[in-house]
Amino acid sequence: MAHIFAVGGGKGGTGKSFIAANLGVMLARQGKKVVLVDLDLGAPNLHTMMGLTNLKTGLSNFLNKSVKNLSLTSAPTKTPNLYIISSLRCSLEVGNLFYAQKQKIIRAIWQLPTDYVVLDLGAGTTYNTLDFFLASHQGLSVFTPEPTSIQNTVQFIKAVYLRKLKHILKQHAFATAVKEVGYESDDGVVRSPLDIVDSVMRSDPARAKLLQKELGKLRFKLILNQYRKHMDVTLGNKIEKVCNRHFYSQFQFLGNIAYNERVYESIIARKVFVAKYPYTPTSTDLKNVANKMTGRNVQAPTLKETNAKV
Amino acid sequence: MRKFEELNHYQIFGIPINASAFEIRQAYKETLSIYGNDSPISYSFFTEEESKEILDRVEEAFSTLIDQEKRELYDKMLVHDKKIDPSDLTKKKQKVPTPLFSSKTPSGAAISKTIKKRIKDKDLKKTKEAILSKDMISGDDLKQLRQTVGIKIEDLFEVTRITVSILEAIENDNFGTLPSTVYLKNFLKAYAKLFEVDPKKIIDGYLKNLNHIKGTS
Ligand SMILES: Nc1ncnc2c1ncn2[C@@H]1O[C@H](COP(=O)(O)OP(=O)(O)O)[C@@H](O)[C@H]1O
Ligand SMILES: [Mg+2]
């Protein structure tokens, strides 16, 4: 089974697609086979970050059943070992997936014959996005240092956490607690899921242990993108600290990725950034993050240890 | 909040039981940069009530630990409740206190500043003149500049953000691993500017020397 990374985070424009594309290149350069999957179905642009225009196949072929095997819809990129499954042509029809379609995609992704899969997710906290994020081994949450971006990332983390929490509660029939989890307000803003675990602990201490254990399997990685020199270098570490303190899941800050004006130029030139501008702090940062993602300190989890089950 | 409420005063600050008053103050400041009212982190994570609850605990922890008498009482309580081992209280201090939220790379901006100052303060006139009088300039010449100031190659990285492997390749004229000329020129320029020598002369001299080595090896 492939090791799956999902790139998410609440806000649009933080650099999720940029990071998915460039980490894909870095992972492929580690000598592994990598498949990028664009799951921002409403606004796919991962192929643009890779400098690709004329993609003949993609997820749409799989969804309209003209191709049975998802891996056959992948296209090679300019980087050896790196393939892409684009959602280029599905945007209009399948912006909103049906439950069964979503499960089908997730199962097919798990079976891709490759070493790594990198999922590029859309902004926001729709169930589709959350479930794709939860289907990964490591969920990468990308944010920038602006207060609004931090806020959206925290909202995203809470939404993922809450969704996972609900899955666990349902799966293990925590009947009384499930009611209390109706914690979302009408506008979909997540209130504090921090207190949900506490309330289960009060009402059902015996099973609170199980809940903690299950939540503990959820692994978040944090990436701070568009980092500029004068900013607090420890911001990411601080957020990691707070997350680990207040949630029962595992959080790791992978590092800052420097802002670079040439990102724009690389897109216009139809080249993936790390290939066009290898000797920049941004490229070094991306390489370091990729190393951390696959480094010796990260053990490959067994099948049971993915963030979710289908 | 339960998870946070279970932390003892030392854990709130992430400091050892035998932390000094200095370390406590330092950690308190750091903690406020996360949980304080003007922190974007606290603002994003917590409701107003949660935030207030946390800050109250932080304040309580600080006022207890910073007061010798209160702290001793508190320590006794922790020992009594078997939360800590009494031997922890008398344990020898670690040589390097581990700050609460140290990032993996120490604050680049601060390091960069001190290094730049060191270069400014050093009289490099003779070394520079010797180098600029040459027709061909080698990596060894550049290295000499650095060594005269007495800074490490890692320090250069902090200021220029040129990776250590490239800096090493430059200083060793290791043309096999040097980047393409476009990049190399940029790196040499950054190197020269840092030591305040004419970038153009350095680039020309260096490339000339490099071509010379390539031609003879
Ligand atoms: N490190 C960076 N430095 C400079 N610009 C960046 C960086 N990361 C992303 N960008 C720019 O930000 C924009 C949004 O990036 P994108 O990856 O499309 O965001 P998302 O997928 O999160 O919506 C892009 O136009 C890209 O050029
Ligand atoms: Mg995107």
- Name the structural class of chain B: mainly alpha
Portion in beta strands of chain B: under 5%
- SSE string of chain B, helix = H, strand = E? HHHHHHHHHHHHHH
Q: How many helices of chain A does DSSP assign?
A: 14
**Most extensive interface:** A-B, 34 and 32 residues
Question: Can you count the beta strands of chain B?
Answer: 0
Give the CA-CA distance, first to last residue of chain A: 14 Å
Distance between the termini of chain B: 68 Å
What is the overall silhouette of chain A? globular
Query: Any ligands, ions or cofactors bound here, and which?
Result: adenosine-5'-diphosphate, magnesium ion
Q: Please give the domain count of chain B.
A: 2
- DSSP helical segment count of chain B: 14
Helix content of chain A: 40-55%
CATH topology of the largest domain in chain A: Rossmann fold
Nearest-angstrom radius of gyration of chain A?
Answer: 19 Å
The 3D shape of chain B can be described as: elongated
Q: Tally of extended strands of chain A? A: 8
Detail the poorly predicted runs of chain B. 95-106
Question: What labels describe this entry?
Answer:
heterodimer; A: 310 residues; alpha/beta; Rossmann fold; 2 domains; 8-stranded mixed beta sheet; 14 helices; 8 strands; globular; B: 217 residues; mainly alpha; Helix Hairpins; 434 Repressor (Amino-terminal Domain); 0% strand; binds adenosine-5'-diphosphate; binds magnesium ion
